[in-house]
Structure formats: structure tokens, C-alpha cells
Design goal:
With 143 residues, this protein is α+β, with helices and mostly antiparallel strands. It folds into two domains: 30 residues; 102 residues, Glutaredoxin (3-Layer(aba) Sandwich), CATH 3.40.30. The chain has four helices and four strands; from the N terminus they run αβαβαββα. A four-stranded mixed sheet has the order 2-1-3-4. It is globular and about 40 Å long. The chain starts with a helix and ends in a 7-residue tail after the last helix.
């Protein structure tokens, strides 16, 4: 029974999010510990020119899913920083970057191949192994 209500709550949150923005999601999230402060990036272009697959996460303070993803991304940097570039963008501080990349909900992860071509997106939380799998298969066929 509890699962049925949770599903309904998620649908309501999705409808609210479309009309109110990402803050609607936090109405249905359980409170969690605060995350480390987010890194504000003035421009993403240098991060996409590292020659490595890149993950850019758009997040905001007070977002429980963002806090959980910050832990995953910290582990990714620590364990695989030589293979991937990981960037976190504070969506509230860098609204222009979020708008340019059409980000509406948090957390949003945008995946790029080693040449800086976007290969995929995900909204919500991911496990470390799923992030690694997406980065490993990041490839964009350019015309």
C-alpha cells in the first residue's frame, strides 16, 4: 500500500515540477544531510576539452538528490579522476549555464565524450557503476 501512495506522490511531484520548477521535487523527498558546497563554474568549455569523457552535474543547494549524487561524484573523482572529468555546476548561482543547457530539474547529469560532444542526459540519482558505464560508452558520431 505504501508503494502505491509513493508512486502517486511522484506523479504529483512531476506535475508540480513542470509548472513550478525543480523546487517541487523537494516537497516529496525525505530530509537528508546537507552536501558539501557546490562548485560554481564560470564556463564549461575548458572542462570539455580535457580529452576525457566528462560528466557535468547541474545541482542546487537544498536538493536531497543532489546531495546524494555529490557523494557518488566525489567517489568517482577519487577513484577514477584520471579517466574522467567531473564538474558540478550550482544551478542557482549559474542560471545562464543551466538555461544554455536546457536544464529544468535537479540533479541533472549531462554526459560528454572525449571530444566534448553531448552523448546523453539523466535526471535524478545514479549509482557509481551506472555513471561509469555511461561515461565508458560516451561516444558521439559527428557528421
Amino acid at each position: 500500500m505504501k508503494t502505491k501512495w509513493r508512486g502517486a506522490a511522484i506523479l504529483i511531484a512531476a506535475a508540480l515540477a513542470l509548472t513550478m520548477g525543480s523546487d517541487a521535487w523537494s516537497l516529496f523527498e525525505e530530509p537528508r544531510a546537507a552536501a558539501e558546497p557546490l562548485i560554481s563554474m564560470p564556463a564549461l568549455d575548458p572542462s570539455l576539452r580535457t580529452g576525457k569523457p566528462t560528466l557535468i552535474q547541474f545541482a542546487r543547494e537544498g536538493c536531497p538528490g543532489c546531495a546524494e549524487m555529490a557523494v557518488v561524484l566525489g567517489r568517482l573523482r577519487e577513484e577514477h579522476g584520471d579517466r574522467y572529468t567531473v564538474v558540478e555546476v550550482d544551478l542557482l548561482a549559474q542560471r545562464d549555464i543551466g538555461q544554455r543547457h536546457h536544464v529544468q530539474l535537479t540533479p541533472t547529469q549531462v554526459f560528454f565524450d572525449a571530444q566534448g560532444c553531448e552523448t546523453g542526459r539523466h535526471v535524478g540519482k545514479l549509482e557509481l557503476l551506472e555513471v561509469i558505464a555511461r561515461l565508458d560508452r560516451a561516444y558521439c558520431a559527428r557528421p
